[in-house]
Amino acid sequence: MYQPLADELRPVHLEDVCGQEHILGPNALLRRIIESEKIPNLIFYGPSGTGKTTVANLIAAKTKRKLFRLNATTASSADIKEIYAQLDTFLAPDGVLLYLDEIQYFNKKQQQTLLEYIENGKITLIASTTENPYFYVYNAILSRSTVFEFKAIGPEAALKAIRRAVGYLESKNGVRAETEEGTLEHIAFACGGDIRKAINAVELLFSAGKAENGVVHLTLEDAKQISQRSAMRYDREGDDHFDDLSALMKSIRGSDPDAALHYLARFLEAGDLPSACRRILCSACEDIGLAYPQAIAIVKACVDSALQLGMPEARLPLADAVILLATAPKSNSGCMAIDAAISDVKHGRTGPVPRELQNVHADGAGFEREQGYLYPHDFPNHWVRQQYLPDAIKDRRYYEYGDNKTEQAARRYWDEIKKTPG
Fold first, then answer.
1. What is the CATH number of domain 239-327?
2. E strand residue ranges, 134-270
3. In degrees to the nearest 10, what's the CA dihedral of 298, 303, 309, 315?
4. Which one of 2.130.10.10, 2.60.40.1230, 1.10.8.60, 3.40.50.300 gives the CATH number of domain 155-226?
5. Cα–Cα dist 151/134, whole Å
6. Which CATH superfamily is domain 346-417 in?
C-alpha cells in the first residue's frame, strides 16, 4: 500500500518537529506540558502541514495513551459515543486521547455532545483547526481547553526537512541525488510554510528525476513545475482570505505600494477580482478620501475597467489603482465624521428637524405656516448663518478638516467667508 513520504518521515521525537520553537522550544510551555505527561484538553490552531497531527501523535506516544483519530468533516456524534462506550475495554486509568481534526466542521450541537465526554477526563481532547478557534469553537469547549497556535514553517526550517527527505530517499532507493543549485531552496520557499507539501514535492522530484548510473538528477525546472501555485493558501470563507483583505487595505493606508501590490497579487492569482475591487474602492473613500477626492472617481474607473477586461489584463488597471492610492495623501476625516454622526443617531441623539428646514408643502393646503428658511443663494458667497442641526445637538461637530492640502484650502475658504457678519 502506498504511503506518502510525508507520513513515512513523520517525526518520532519532539526535537525532529520543524519550527514551532515558540511552543516546542527547550523551555516553551507546550513542551513542558508534554514532558509532564499531564495533558489537558488542547486545541491546535494553524495552517496545514505545520505539525499539529504530528505533535498529537507524539503526545500519545509520550503518555502511552490510546489515541483515537476522527476528522470532523466525516465524523459524527455517534463516533464519539462509540469511543466512550469502549473505554472500559482499554483498561486505561488515565483515559484515552481523542484527536479531532478540523473541529470547525462540527456544528454547535455536535460540539456540545463532545463536551459531555471530555467533562470527566476519561477522554482528553486534542482538536486541530486551520481557522481561528475563537470564532469556530464552542465557548464551553474553549474554556476547558488550552489553545496553541502553530505557525507556517519558515524557509530555513523547511529546508532542513527537505534535505532530510532527500537523504531518506537516497538511502531507500539506493541512489545518489545530484541536485541543481537552488532546487531545494526553491521548494522551501514555494511550499508556503507547509512541510507536507515540501516533502511531497521532493518525492515527486525523485519520481520524475532522470536516473543514470545510480544518480538521480533533481533540476530547478522540475521543482518550479511541481511547485506552481503551491504556496497559495486561499479559501474565500477562511481566515486567510480576510487576513489578505486586511493586509491589502492596511498596506494602502500605510502608504506602502510594494506591500499593497503583493496582497493584490494574491487575489489576482486566486482569481478573486470582486474581493480585491471592493477593498480598493473602500480604501479610496476611507483612507484617501477628501485629501485627494479625485482618487475615488479614478479608482472606480480602474475597477470598472478591470471587471470588464477580466484576467490577465485586469491586473493593469488594478495595479494602477493600488499604486495611486498607496502613494496618495491620506485623510480619514470623512470616515470619522460619518461614524460620529451614525453613533449619535444610534444612541437617540436626534430631535425634530428645525422648522426652517422642514418641507413647507407637508403642512397641507391652507395650513402653511411661516417657515423662515433663508435661501443661501440669495446671500453673498452663497452662504448665510443659519441653524441646520436639531436644537438638542445644535452645536455638535462631526467633521474636522484633515491636515492635507485640499482640506486645509477648503477650511481657509470657509473661515474667510464665515467672518462675514450675519
1. 1.20.272.10
2. 145-149, 176-179, 210-212, 215-218
3. 90
4. 1.10.8.60
5. 17
6. DNA polymerase III clamp loader subunits, C-terminal domain (1.10.3710.10)
Average pLDDT over every residue of 20-30? 90
Q: Does residue 368 register a pLDDT over 70?
A: no
Phi, psi of 170 (to 5 degrees): -60, -45
Residues 6+ apart with CB under 8 A from 196: 4, 6, 48, 49
Q: How confident is the model at residue 90 (pLDDT cuts 50, 70, 90)?
A: low
Instruction: Note whether 157 and 18 are within 8 A (CB).
Output: yes
Tell me the whole-structure pTM to 2 decimals.
Answer: 0.60
User: Given pLDDT bands bounded at 50, 70 and 90, which one contains residue 285?
Assistant: very high
Could you tell me which residues come within 8 angstroms of residue 146 by beta carbon, excluding any fewer than 6 positions away? 33, 40, 41, 42, 43
Set of cell numbers at residue 110: 455536535
Give the angle subtended at the CA of 322 by the CAs of 321 and 325, to the nearest 5°: 85
